[in-house]
Amino acid sequence: MPPWLYLGSVIILAGIVAVMAVRNTHREKGLAAQTLFEKGTAFIRAFESGARTGMGMHWEGEQYQVLLEEMAKQPDILYLAVTNEAGVILADSDKGQIGSRLHSPEEMRELEIGAKEKWRMTTLPGGRKAFEVYRYFEPLAGCDALDSCDANGQPVSCPWSGPSASQGTGKQAVFTAFDVASFDAALAEDMRNTVILSAILLLLGVGGVMTLFWAQSYRFSKRQLQDTRVFSSEIINNLPVGLITTDSDGRLAVVNGAAERISGVKAADIVGKSPEEALPAAWCGLKDVIGKGEPVLEHDMECSFNGGKNIPLSLSASKILNEEGRYLGNLFIFRDLGEVRRLQEEVRRKEKLAALGSLAAGVAHEIRNPLSSIKGFAKYFEGQCAEGSHGRELAAVMAQEVDRLNRVITELLDFARSSDLKARPMDVGGLIEHSLRLVRQDAEGKKITVAFDRDASLPVIAIDPDRLTQALLNLYLNAIQAMEGGGTLAVRASSDGRGGVRIEVEDSGKGITPESLSSIFNPYFTTKSSGTGLGLAIVQKIIEAHRGEVKVKSTPGRGTTFNILLPVGRPEGAFHGRKA
């Protein structure tokens, strides 16, 4: 809810409380006036009744005076008086006021005295406030104010007669006045109570509204904080780089998923520990640099976690400070340079192979041309020498070596030529079966069992069948040569789950030593006395031209497995022919 809505609610509540307070004050004043008015009416009627009784009993003036004085002794009665129309006092609870003027003739006319009681607030001499009730004085109904009749019907005179009583029309008025001090005090007390109650209600209302406002703000802030935490947590956990933070006490506080994957350490095992306990020493050596306020940017180092292998890392670090500049901890961001270095090495290898290929192609052309002449001369000398002679044998050996050199040059040219593929959709399983038929007789002659296992759901992908067959044959021949005493050549083809094909070529031969495993794809690297060292380099080049990858794992004495992954995408430099 917007703040102005809460402010409006407070203003409306204050207005309601103020209106209630004013209405309550007016109601209290009205009740007080009504009470005094009814009391004054009762006094006037009681006095008239007493006067009526006294007239019937032929009271004298002193007896009426006693009646007035006794009635005026009631609490809060200021005076009880009877006047003529001119306002001259005919009788008064204070005997000394008789003959004086209670109100001027003008006031008497303004009061509009009648047969019914009326009231007004007046101020007495001396500034004292009084509640005055008045009407015509009529002790006997049916008789006028000058003459009356006794119980026997005999005429009697009014209680008060004489020159003053006969002024005007002869009508007399009775006035009674009450002291309003006690009522004012009660009203003031009620007013105070009303103000206090209103203030309490207003405070409660404002407190309630503010509580609602604070509760709403708290819920909003709490929800916003939760959303921010979830948002931050998702960002941290999905970062492609490792992130580790420490708290203000220097202990590890946050370790994201990438940091776990790179370091191989579980977050639960190191959170709460000091960096010296959980992180490599080279890493912790940066604390002094960070402590000086200098950020660390892309610092390359090799670290070992829990005694494992060294991991090349690029590390950035800095302090975490809040808005007030207070230290909250340290932030470490790092990434694994292993893949970067592998790619850099791959680029360098390809550049070297490209340069080597270009050089080899030029040299091969220069060598191949005279080879034909040399072989021709060898055949000529072979024909000139007698059968079984030493010269004929030398000429035959010369011709064989020329053929072997020609095969090397042919492989060299195959390696050096461009990787343009004639790709078309093919059933990889059928192609593998065809390639295995080409080597099956040779394998069986060396007591090698050939096995092929394929998935029924093997997808059709775009490949160059000739080049892929060449790559597979190179792998088969290497496997057969590695199993001199017989064994098993197992080929498996399966889907990789993403539309591509995975091919495994496994043999049970002598295996490859760990020292040689990293160099087997290098040109001219070979462990065989008769090998050229280009077979596996050509395999890798063909597979990479298909945008695939080839990996190898080997255990000396147990065999070697080549794993080829061919993606569903179109190979590099390929154009589509007709469907096979």
Short description:
The protein has 580 residues and is α+β, with helices and mostly antiparallel strands. The protein has 15 helices and 20 strands. It has helices spanning 3-56, 61-71, 105-111, 181-237, 257-263, 267-270, 275-278, 281-284, 287-291, 338-384, 390-416, 428-445, 465-482, 514-517, 535-545, and strands at 77-84, 89-92, 118-124, 128-136, 147-149, 155-157, 172-179, 242-246, 252-255, 296-303, 311-321, 327-336, 421-427, 448-454, 460-463, 487-495, 501-507, 549-555, 559-566, 574-576.
Question: Could you explain the architecture of this structure?
Answer:
Helix content is about 50%, strand content about 25%. The protein is of the alpha+beta class. The strands form 5 sheets. It has a 5-stranded antiparallel beta sheet with strand order 2-1-7-4-3. A 5-stranded antiparallel beta sheet has the order 9-8-12-11-10. α1 (about 5-55) runs antiparallel to α4 (about 180-235). It is rod-shaped, with a radius of gyration of 62 Å. The two termini are about 70 Å apart. The model is unreliable at about 140-150, about 160-170 and about 575-580 (pLDDT under 50).
* Shape by Cα distribution: rod-shaped
Percentage of β-strand residues: 15-25%
Biggest sheet features:
5 strands, antiparallel
Poorly predicted regions = 142-149, 161-169, 575-580
Structural class: alpha+beta
Cα Rg:
62 Å
**On the 0-100 scale, what is the average pLDDT?**
79
Q: Give me the side-by-side strand order of the main sheet.
A: 2-1-7-4-3
Descriptive keywords:
5-stranded antiparallel β-sheet; disordered C terminus; 15 helices; 580 residues; alpha+beta; rod-shaped
